[in-house]
Amino acid sequence: MNVRAGRTNSLTDVAGLRVGHASRRGDGWLTGTTVVLCPPGGAVAGVDVRGG
Prior knowledge:
2 strands, mainly beta, about 50 residues, two-stranded antiparallel sheet, elongated
């Protein structure tokens, strides 16, 4: 299989996906979240979060 990385080698290279991130730091805060929106019809996905 011949697979090539996209321009940024990230999720944003996948056609139809939209990716956003927000974080809050300072004054005792250190938190954030990333959102991945799939095109109509959805997608199958999984996640593994370690640490925290």
